[in-house]
């Protein structure tokens, strides 16, 4: 789905949907209360969020996995494989698997560390530990209660924050932000904090880890380039703003719902628009894996990675659970 604009504001529509949001919050709280949490034999780090998509969980999970692998740990990543058909537990093989089977995020995660798709997170954890994981990083799952968490990092976009703060469908939140912050160990703010998240975290006694998305090594030089940009991610406008910030000229932008399964006709139309305007079609790494395979080489990609504002700030949190980076 695409996040509706009214999720940003406490307007009439949000207020009208408040009774349904109360039911959502009740259901979310009840699921956590009734969950039978499993404790794996290794530490579990959860990278979760409050809102439905667009926070930046996957880049944070990838950055953590790479940092810990560089330090000599053997992290495995767990994901439910949103958008894919695989039930699992299945270790992701980027050569044999595609986004239709394991989901787009799983393919990105697998570039950083061994990754498991498992709708049942307990089964995924057991499989990962049995094949050598000495640490589990769970991308999403903060609201599931399936695994006992040793470290819970909540991720939020600094511009969007928690939207209007209301639960689905009145707002973007999976649960009340205050409830989520009370169970978290730290708040990761991706991008400039324009939503007052730092002050909110301080009121809950939570440390704040600042971070930003930057072009990854090998990213194309886009200064002065004419682009037709499209994205099917939680907050497509973030991608478009990044391109503009790199000096590109956006002659056309197209936003699709998160995890959108691109049809051939849609991509061919965008390629035709780019050719007619003397531009290049470009998308995100997450979107590119969902394109028809024979059209991917005709679409440019901007790979990004997470950069911590203060990399050392993460160390005390990892030390707390006996994981020394």
TrEMBL record:
Cited Pfam families: LpxK
UniProt KW Glycoprotein keyword: no
Taxonomy, superkingdom: Bacteria
Enzyme Commission code(s) on record: 2.7.1.130
Lipid biosynthesis among keywords: yes
GO MF entry, a single one: lipid-A 4'-kinase activity
Keywords for this protein: ATP-binding, Kinase, Lipid A biosynthesis, Lipid biosynthesis, Lipid metabolism, Nucleotide-binding, Transferase
Family: Belongs to the LpxK family.
Name of the protein in its database record: Tetraacyldisaccharide 4'-kinase
Species assigned in the record: Phaeospirillum tilakii
Name of encoding gene: lpxK
């Amino acid at each position: 789905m695409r996040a509706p604009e009214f999720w940003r504001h406490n307007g009439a529509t949000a207020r009208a949907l408040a009774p349904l949001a109360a039911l959502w919050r009740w259901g979310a709280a009840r699921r956590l209360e009734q969950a039978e949490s499993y404790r794996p034999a290794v530490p579990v780090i959860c990278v979760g969020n409050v809102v439905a998509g667009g926070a930046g969980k996957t880049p944070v999970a990838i950055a953590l996995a790479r940092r810990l692998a560089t330090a000599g740990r053997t992290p495995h990543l767990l994901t439910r494989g949103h958008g894919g058909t695989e039930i699992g537990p299945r270790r992701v093989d980027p050569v044999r698997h595609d986004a239709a089977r394991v989901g787009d995020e799983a393919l990105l995660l697998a570039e950083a560390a061994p990754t498991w798709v498992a709708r049942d997170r307990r089964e995924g954890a057991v499989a990962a530990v049995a094949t050598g994981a000495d640490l589990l990083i769970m991308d999403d799952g903060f609201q599931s209660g399936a695994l006992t968490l040793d470290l819970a990092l909540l991720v939020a976009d600094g511009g969007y924050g928690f939207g209007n703060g209301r639960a689905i469908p009145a707002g973007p939140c999976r649960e009340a932000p205050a409830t989520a912050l009370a169970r978290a160990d730290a708040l990761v703010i991706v991008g400039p904090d324009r939503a007052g998240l730092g002050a909110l975290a301080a009121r809950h006694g939570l440390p704040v880890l600042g971070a930003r998305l930057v072009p990854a090594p090998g990213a194309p030089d886009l200064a002065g380039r004419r682009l037709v940009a499209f994205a099917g991610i939680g907050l497509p406008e973030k991608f478009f703003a990044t391109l503009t910030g790199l000096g590109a000229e956006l002659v056309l932008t197209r936003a699709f719902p998160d995890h959108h399964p691109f049809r051939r006709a849609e991509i061919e139309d965008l390629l035709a628009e780019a050719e007619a305007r003397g531009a290049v079609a470009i998308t995100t790494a997450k979107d590119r894996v969902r394109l028809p395979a024979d059209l991917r080489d005709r679409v440019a990609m901007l790979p990004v990675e997470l950069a911590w504002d203060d990399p050392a700030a993460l160390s005390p949190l990892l030390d707390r659970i006996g994981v020394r980076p």
